[in-house]
Specification:
heterodimer; A: mainly alpha; 8 helices; 0% strand; globular; B: 4 helices; 12 strands
Chain lengths: 171, 277
């Protein structure tokens, strides 16, 4: 019960953060801000996959709807990220952490493991977004620069959010 | 927690994942033209291949009919050739005004085979097996020996998508051969055998059985391609004839068409857009 309540609160706070960040600051064509993957990546490990997919789809769709992007773009990427999240988590977790009820955040994983976790997840998410935008597998240098830049900035932003106070109270 | 077989939830997850992804991609396709073009390009290629295989089978069984059609067409052309030959000979012998024809004719033709065709919808389309590689382009006309078939709407490398004359959005500029009165020929979406010739002024005295041909005003189609004969007419708003035309071409037994390449189309279009500006 507490879990789903905190999910709802987090859902809206991530949605609002994401919308504020994308709509009010223009970073140019080489950088896109997406911090909402943190919500998907840090689902408690005992959440059922079906729940996770539905939450992610809703969040992605919300982001698409309120920011000025193609409807369905972030939804597709978010659902894909939710689908592979358990696999990524298995890469960085230690024994016993799989049955945890709390969100695997910075304090739980430690800085280096958390950074690895976030970096892998964000890379997958960004590549998915770029592929959907270009809609081809042809390599473009422009896209590579965009992915790397966004990856750095988004990782930094997510770390800031993880250090934040509000987030700690609601998970 | 009760132990269940682990396969079911995994399967459910994968199914939900696929459903959500498909939904998202459909949404993207619906909302963004760029992705739409890419997706439909791929779909058209696949669709084209599939239809090609299907038509090859069908085609094999209707070879007899096709042969007959081709033989008819051949003999008709030979007759015409003979007629013109005699005319040419008399002209050569009698007249000083004879000038040999130049090489450049206004229209050239690309023969193509139909691989997909529908006649039972309000908006019918035809797919042919010639595309950009063969010189087919958007807005080119498509004809058969028996009349106008449609206008090319989209082109991929090997296939083209044609808006059939049997499409309520399509119209062809046509005229009554004997009288020279012209108007748009449209399709009312009812029967594949009939089309409507509209906007013919009331004072024109038409007769049942008059033949209707293309007017040649549109630069898409050459003039005087036979379309059909007048079956009946009624007067709309007291000012215009609405004439029902029985089409010569049976769209249901169509196998081969010719794409019309007009050498002057660009020039004509340029002039008309200049005028509009």
């Amino acid at each position: 019960m507490k879990n789903s309540f905190s999910n709802i609160i987090l859902f809206f706070s991530f949605l609002i953060t994401q919308v504020l960040l994308t709509n009010f600051i223009n970073f140019g064509p080489l950088l896109f801000i997406s911090v909402y993957p943190l919500f998907i990546l840090t689902f408690p490990t005992n959440t059922s996959p079906v729940n996770m997919l539905l939450w992610s789809f809703a969040l992605g769709l919300g982001v698409d709807y309120f920011t000025d992007s193609i409807l369905g773009l972030n939804a597709a990427a978010a659902v894909f990220l939710a689908f592979v999240q358990p696999l990524i988590f298995k890469l960085v977790c230690r024994k016993g952490e799989l049955e945890n009820q709390i969100r695997p955040g910075l304090t739980e994983l430690g800085l280096s493991r958390f950074l690895t976790f976030i970096a892998i997840g964000l890379t997958i998410h960004h590549i998915a977004i770029t592929l959907l935008e270009n809609f081809s597998f042809a390599f473009q240098f422009h896209s590579l620069v965009r992915i790397v830049l966004s990856l750095l900035v988004n990782t930094f932003l997510i770390l800031l959010i993880e250090f934040g106070i509000f987030y700690k109270n609601w998970r | 927690m009760a132990k269940r077989s682990p396969v079911t939830p995994i399967l459910a997850t994968i199914l939900l994942f696929l459903a959500l992804e498909t939904g998202s991609v459909l949404m993207i396709a619906y909302n963004s033209v760029f992705q739409q073009v890419r997706i439909f390009g791929v779909l058209m290629q696949i669709h084209g291949r599939f239809l090609n295989a299907q038509t090859n089978i069908k085609y094999y069984f209707s070879l007899r009919n096709v042969n007959e059609q081709l033989a008819d067409e051949n003999s008709r052309l030979l007759n015409q050739l003979a007629k013109y030959q005699t005319q040419l000979d008399t002209l050569k012998a009698d007249s000083l005004s004879y000038k040999p024809l130049g090489d450049s004719s206004d229209f050239s033709y690309i023969p193509a085979k139909i691989i997909g065709n529908s006649t039972n919808k309000k908006q019918n389309y035809i797919i042919i097996d010639k595309g950009r590689k063969d010189g087919v382009g958007k807005d080119m006309g498509v004809i058969s020996p028996n009349g106008v078939i449609g206008v090319v709407n989209a082109v991929s490398d090997n296939y083209s998508y044609i808006i059939s004359l049997l499409n309520i959005n399509q119209s062809v500029s046509a005229k009554i051969s004997r009288l020279g009165a012209f108007g748009p020929l449209i399709w009312d979406g009812r029967s594949a055998d009939y089309a409507l010739l509209t906007e013919i002024p009331q004072h024109i005295k038409i007769q049942v059985g008059d033949s209707v041909v293309t007017s040649g005003f549109s630069s898409i189609f050459p003039p005087d391609i036979p379309l059909g004969t007048i079956r009946k007419s009624k007067i709309i708003n007291g000012t215009h004839h609405e004439i029902q035309v029985k089409l010569f071409q049976d769209f249901r037994t169509l196998h081969y068409v010719n794409v019309v390449v007009s050498s002057h189309k660009e020039e004509v279009d340029k002039i008309s857009t200049q005028n509009e500006e």
